[in-house]
# Entry
Amino acid sequence: MADWVLYGAALLVGALLGSFLNVVISRLPRSAGLVEAEGRPSGLAYPPSQCEACGRRLRPFDLIPVLSYILLRGRCRTCGAEIGIRHLLVEIGGSLLGVATVYLAPSALALAAIGILFFMLLALTVIDAETGFLPDRLTLPLLALGLGFSFAPFTPSPVQSFIGALVGGGGLWLLAFAYRLFRGREGLGGGDVKLVAAGGAWCGAVALPALLLIASVTGLLFALFQMVGGRKERALSAELRFGPFLCAAIALTYTAELLELFAPG
Ligand SMILES: [Zn+2]
# Structure
């Protein structure tokens, strides 16, 4: 198959997966009881996609990724409610991740593994940014899948993976415990602990320092930018939502391993 056909398909499938992810991102926190449902749908697949404001069922024409958003100028066709730029960004992000997955994958099994990792991280990133939660329903399967795929030839060895999960999750749990002890309030959530365990499982123990360094540096830079931007109170008072930076760090570390920038062992 010509390369451009393959990458064209990846772009399209990625956008469609992004479109599906938008529904999951909206509904999973409600379905898991993390945020109020307020009469809005919380089933992940049922009812089918509908406007969050007026409940109108979306027709196939409204469901074309990216194009529908642009043609409708980001508004519901019936009630005019704003659809939210997040929907467009997740669809575009899905396209880019689709292309990256095809580019990085050395085999069909790797294609599945990388795709699952990237899209679950995208969902976790947006859910944490919007709600402040990293749902167990995503972090725990991600951890299990990381351990499972370690038996495939393109990932860290099972030993690396299991030690990575144990040391990553355990280390962060200790850090969270110490923070609670000394500051008397929650600094890192349990979701962060499970996410780092999953990151250790996917990337291996040897990669953990790099992974945590990337997440901390990008997280601190972001907090600094918020302070410089005059949002000092918000940056300091709000608990730092670490999830998005952890997700980005896991994706980057795993990508570096696939490109053999450093050997996971
Ligand atoms: Zn509507």
